[in-house]
Specification:
The structure is a single chain. This protein folds into 2 domains: 39 residues, no CATH class; 82 residues, 3-Layer(aba) Sandwich (Glutaredoxin), CATH 3.40.30. It is built from 3 helices and 6 strands, in the order βββαβαββα. The strands form 2 sheets. The protein has a 4-stranded mixed sheet with strand order 4-3-5-6. Helix 1 packs across helix 3. The chain is globular and about 30 Å long.
């Protein structure tokens, strides 16, 4: 359950988070904080809107739901943002800012295993 959503810029400091820098992030970061004081898993589906990209987004959202994870799933279609991750083939999956899958749409069982490996569950 999300308790607080806070918007910070790079110059504001907080006891929880100091903001993000780098070419993948804008000047603002959205901070998701859950009840047990741990960060939500951040999952991004990178793709320009093709059928496979849309399919990966659907399968990813279903896998997160079935795993009952506290996670934020975001679809990234901006080609400049996709290129910033160094992805050469879409669709791609990014978990907590690490590219973990590129150029394919896995079966839901394989995707659940992959997400579980990064969630610690």
């Amino acid at each position: 359950m999300i308790v607080k959503i806070e918007k910070l810029n790079k110059t504001k400091r907080s006891g929880i988070h100091t903001g993000r820098t780098g070419n993948r992030h804008s000047a603002f970061s959205i901070i998701y904080w859950v009840r047990n004081n741990s960060w939500l898993m951040e999952i991004k589906v990178l793709g320009t809107g093709c059928a496979k990209c849309k399919s990966l987004e659907i399968v990813t959202r279903k896998a997160v739901e079935e795993l009952n994870l506290d996670a934020v799933v975001e679809k990234v279609e901006d080609i400049q943002k996709i290129m910033a991750y160094g992805v050469m083939r879409t669709p791609a999956l990014v978990i907590n800012e690490k590219v973990v899958l590129s150029g394919q749409v896995p079966k839901i069982s394989d995707l659940k295993e992959l997400i579980s490996n990064y969630s610690g569950s």
